[in-house]
Structures are given as C-alpha cells and as structure tokens.
From TrEMBL, chains A, B:
Gene: leuB
Pathway: Amino-acid biosynthesis; L-leucine biosynthesis; L-leucine from 3-methyl-2-oxobutanoate: step 3/4
Cofactor binding summary note: Binds 1 Mg(2+) or Mn(2+) ion per subunit.
Protein purpose: Catalyzes the oxidation of 3-carboxy-2-hydroxy-4-methylpentanoate (3-isopropylmalate) to 3-carboxy-4-methyl-2-oxopentanoate. The product decarboxylates to 4-methyl-2 oxopentanoate.
Any matching Pfam family: Iso_dh
Name assigned to this protein: 3-isopropylmalate dehydrogenase
Keyword Hydrolase attributed: no
Residues involved in substrate binding: R90, R100, R128, D222
Positions of the Isopropylmalate dehydrogenase-like domain: 2-351
Taxonomy of the source species: Bacteria, Pseudomonadati, Pseudomonadota, Betaproteobacteria, Burkholderiales
Chain residues that bind Mg(2+): D222, D246, D250
UniProt-listed GO biological process terms: L-leucine biosynthetic process
Length: 355, 355
C-alpha cells in the first residue's frame, strides 16, 4: 500500500508529521512518499501542483494532505495560487465525493459558540459533490455583457451545471452512507430558483427508489443554513452540490467550535481518496508548534477505513484520540481551564502512546 | 403617498393587518390599496403575480408585502408557484438592493441558540444584491450535456453573471450604509473559484476609492458562513451577491433566534421599495392568531424611513416595539417563562397603544 504524503504550507508540515508518526506505529507495511504541494509546490517547481506531485498522487493508493496557502503566495495570479492544487487534485483524481463529518466530542462540548443543549452530541455527515457544479463549469470568464440593461459593459460569468450521472453517483454515496447511520438523508438544493437544482432534486428523488429504507427530505439551501443554526442535531446525513456544500460544510464544522478536530475524505468511484483536515493552513501560527494535529490524525483514520480497508486500525486511532481527550490533553485551540495545554508534538506523542 | 398592500398567503394577511393598523394611527395621509399575490394571486387570477397586482406595485410609492406560499400550491409547475411573485416583483420593479438587518433585541437575548456572550447586542446589516446573479442569468435549463465524461446525458444548467454597473450600484449602497454605521464593510465573494466573483472583488475594490473613510475587507463565502457562527458581532455591514446573500442573510437572521422580529427592505435606484418580514408564510400556524406581527410592523417602519421620508415616524414605531418588548409581551415564537404570551392582534394593539 502506497500513501502519498502532501504536507503543503503553513501548519501543514507540522500536523502531517504527527499523522505520519501515528501511521508508523500501527505495525503495517505502508510505503509513504512525500511531495510538495500548494505554495511549497510553487516554491520548488513553479506550480502549486507540480507534475511529480500529481503523478505520485495518481500512483498512490491514498493521499494524505495537510493544508495549503501562505501570505507570500496571495499576490500570485489565480492559476498559480496554492488552492489551485486542491482543485487540480480533485479534478484529476476524480474525487467527486467529499465526506465531512461534523462531530462534537463530549469532552469539548464547551468549545462551541452554540448552547450545549443545541449541539452536545452533534454527529452529522455532510456529503458534498466535489468535481462538478459552478466550480468547473464552462464557459466562464469576463466578457462583454451581451444583453439587458448593462449591455456592452464588462461582466464576469460562470456556468453552473450538473449532469444526470454526476448527480446519480453522489446520491448513491449519500444514500449508502445514510444506510450505515440513522437512515435519514436531507438533499439540499435551490430547486425554486435554479434549473440545475430542480434537475438535481428530480434525480435524487429517482435514486431514492433504490433505497426505500432511507427517509429522504428535500430542503432549500437558505433553509438548511437556518436549520443548521436552529437545530443542527435534527440532521443525519446531508447531500448537496459543490458550491452549497462548500458553504454548509464549513458552517457545520464551525458549529462544533473545534474545527481543529474535524477530518475529511474526498473519494473517487473506487474509494481511492484524498484525506485532509477540515481546517486551513493557519499561517499565523505556523512553526510555533501549537497547531492541533488531531484533525489530520483522524483524517489518517478515515483513510485507513475508506481507502486502505483497515477498519480496525481506524477504530484504534479514533479511540486513541478519544483517550487523550479524556486525559484532558488540549492544544491551544481547544484549551479551557482545568485541562492540560500541550503542543503539536506532545499531542501526537500522546496519541502514539495511547495506541 | 400611495402604499400597495400585498398580504399574500399563510400568516401574511394576519400580520399585514397589524402593520396596517399601525400605519393608520400615525396621523399621516397614506392611501393604502391591497391586491392578491402569491398563492392568493393564483387563486384569484390564475397567476402568482397578477397583472393588476404588478400595476399597483408599480404605481405605488412603496409596497408592503406579507409572505407567500402554502401547501396547496406546492405541486403547481414552477412558473405558477407563489415564490415566483417575489422574483417577478424584484425584477419588474428593479429592486436590486436588499437590506436585511440582523439585530438581537436585548430583551430577547435568550431566544438565540448561540451563547449570550456571542450574540448579545448583535447588530449587523446584510446587503444582498437582488436582481442579478444566477437567479436571473441566461441561458439556463435542461439540455444534452455538450462535453466531458457525461456527454450526451441530460444536464441542468444555469448562468451566474454580474455586470460592472450592477456591482457598482450595490457597492455604492453598501459603502453608504457603512458610512452611517461603524464604517466597516465586508464584501463576501468566492474570488478564488468564480470568475464572476473575482470580477466582483475587483469592482468593489475600485468603488472603495470613493469611500476612503470606510474600512473594506474581502472574505470568501465559506469563511463568512463560519465567522457568522464563530464571532458574528465582529461584522458591521456585509455586502454580497444574490445567491450567497440568500444563504448568509437567512443564516444571520437565525443567529438572533427571533426571526419573527426581523424586517427587510428591497430598494430600487430611487429608494422606492418593497418591505417584508424576513420570515416566511408559516402555513402551519396560519389562521390561529398566534403569528408574530413585529417583523411586519418593523418593515413598515423601514418603509417610512427609506421610501416615504418619514424618519421620525419610523423611530416612533421602532420605539413602540421596544416598549412592548420591555413590557414583557411576547408572541409564542419568542415566549419564555416570566413573560406574557399574547396573540397576533393583541401584539398589534399593544404597539398601537404604545404609539
Ligand atoms: C480553497 C477552495 C478552492 C476550497 C473550495 O472552495 O472547495 C476550500 O474552500 C475547500 O472547501 O476545500
Ligand atoms: C422564495 C425564494 C425565491 C426567495 C429567494 O431565494 O430569494 C427567498 O428565499 C428569499 O430570500 O426571499
């Protein structure tokens, strides 16, 4: 089993180092190979997704990704900016299914800005389509406005689109995920305004026929953003498009108050995947040794579960993380009075020890 | 001064009746004329926005709108569904600037699902562009997918677009609103992915030159959705496009826990406007006399301020609302132990009395 390790920028290398430490003590024969990505890719090879990095990611059985982005790359032209590496990896590897759990660990119930009774025990799964929608639709650009009151002016434009097969395959992923949980799926769309999402609703409704044991509900995206604030625990699994999923999955993760704890998986049709923490590269705290490595370690656990067929190893890591939380160990982002503040390495070491 | 009164469906007629009562005791010479809209428009004339209703709205100096939508219209084809009336009014009246305050009244601090320290004193203003973006962009529809892996299948598609002048005029509204408040504007976009919103960012940055006294910050929409959960009080004014604004303004209003209190204004280039509560038609409680009329009454206050040049009357109404809250009167949606539960009419009467 070959794992591509792409640390990236900011806190990426520090947190990835802890996940690698964890992988190395499992007693498995993994081949780990690293390559630069994002700003580090640009610095090394003039491109955020260097050819060698993409080739490695393609050849590997799974990709463990840190985070990308740092101040010095902010002024580059868009095609060279770090986040293009993420978009390029998703598209080139066909990683169409993004799984974003939003879980509030009981030990961290106070971390949320929401009242404990609203979020304690929160455990929802957001499934975001990741290779379609307005993210990649053509045509797009800046052109002369062809009609209407602003005819002749410049206008920016993009194309939102979803083909039937694209919707079907993400719907299957979502219904199957719901089957393994509480059997309730909320499909989020904007069918009252968008043709793309009326079509989305029609296709999801059709796929539902194959999953009669799952209760399907349709919800408009504006309402979903409200319900995530009002009563987030009412959800089980949510599925939506790339753009709405970008917004809602970040909103949902912030409900927990501990985004430093949340992993993510982005899967292709054969369960090959890219695994990364839900948080960003946090350049402001990079190199200080204080970043929380748990989201990355839990991403490695997801990798073991989904791509490497090592469910028990995944369980072991997840239990080890719960154990260190119960021991009261906290990085700065989740620290509260009465717990023990530790740095990135100490946290990684504690998980290794708990294993 | 002529005011078009469009009660609509569900609780619309009940809450509008209270706002009309309030308008009638101000001692002003307003001419009020009603017409059916939404489901009621369809029931009366076969269309959610009947010709006569649109003509009235066009002829009036301002429009006071209740809410639209009810179960029996859910199965109509999209073009005849109640919400098409809203889209039609916005487009036909050129109501491009939607002002959505999210205010947490101190008396209702407990209503929020967020911790008091996170939201008490919340007072943000979301300005949403309302006649452009993917809501109205052409082409759109369902077609044969022209290229890529799904070529030949059916696909749904829509066009996102913003012309320079469209961005400029909403940016001016936003900068001017910020000047009257804390002089901080957050422009929300997705410039890292969308051409439309890279263009948006460029134009907003350019308009900023005319408002050097306002601090401008650009923020990605996914981050904005997170910051609204993490630290909503850090915002002053937010401005964004139609689609992102739909999501974020609803999310923000739910932060207060009292969406029954929140008014909205939708303005054209000459400050003619449509005023409506931020909440919906709530068909489940329609006719029960328990709906909260305060958002509609406060919408009437916004109407007096923005379209009818009666700032003092607006102040009077807003103070009257604060007064009844201080008296402890609450409709069911904002009721808590120790306060006095009242119905829709009683609440309207209390505001009238406070005036
Ligand atoms: C960096 C950006 C392109 C990306 C996205 O919008 O998908 C990020 O926000 C994410 O959610 O992974
Ligand atoms: C009903 C719908 C078309 C409308 C919108 O999306 O604009 C509503 O959600 C709103 O925000 O007023």
């Amino acid at each position: 089993m070959k794992i591509a390790i792409l640390p990236g920028d900011g806190i990426g290398p520090e947190i990835i180092a802890q996940a690698v430490k964890v992988l190395n003590v499992l007693g498995e024969q993994f081949e780990l190979e690293s390559a630069p990505v994002g700003g580090a890719g640009y610095a090394a090879h003039g491109h955020p997704l260097p050819e060698g990095t993409l080739a490695l990611a393609k050849a590997a059985d799974a990709v463990l990704f840190g985070a990308v982005g740092d101040y010095q790359y902010d002024t580059l032209e868009r095609a060279l900016r770090p986040e293009q590496a993420i978009l390029g990896l998703r598209k080139n590897l066909g990683l169409f299914a993004n799984l974003r759990p939003a879980i509030l660990y009981p030990q961290l119930a106070n971390a949320s800005t929401l009242k404990p009774e609203v979020v304690s025990g929160l455990d929802i799964l957001i499934i975001r389509e990741l290779t379609g929608d307005i993210y990649f639709g053509q045509p797009r650009g800046v052109r002369e406005c062809p009609d209407g009151a602003f005819k002749g002016q410049r206008e920016g434009y993009d194309t939102m689109r979803y083909a039937e097969g694209e919707i079907r395959r993400i719907a299957h992923v979502a219904f199957q995920a719901a089957q393994k949980r509480d059997k309730r799926l909320t499909s989020v769309d904007k069918a009252n305004v968008l043709e793309t999402f009326q079509f989305w609703r029609d296709i999801v409704t059709d796929v539902h026929k194959e999953y009669p044991d799952v209760a399907l509900e349709h919800m408009y995206v504006d309402n979903a953003a409200m319900q995530l604030v009002r009563a987030p625990k009412k959800f089980d699994v949510l599925v939506t498009g790339n753009m709405f999923g970008d917004i809602l999955s970040d909103q949902a993760s912030m409900l927990t108050g501990s985004i430093g704890m949340l992993p993510s998986a982005s899967l292709d049709a054969n369960n090959k995947g890219l695994y990364e923490p839900s948080h960003g590269s946090a350049p402001d705290i990079a190199g200080k040794g204080i970043a929380n490595p748990l989201a990355t370690i839990l991403s490695a656990a997801m990798m073991l579960r989904y791509s490497l067929n090592r469910a028990e190893q995944a369980d072991r890591i997840e239990n080890a993380v719960k154990h260190v939380l119960s021991q009261g160990l906290r990085t700065a982002d989740i620290y509260e009075a009465g717990t023990t503040k530790v740095g990135t390495e100490q946290m990684g070491d504690a998980v290794v020890k708990a294993l």
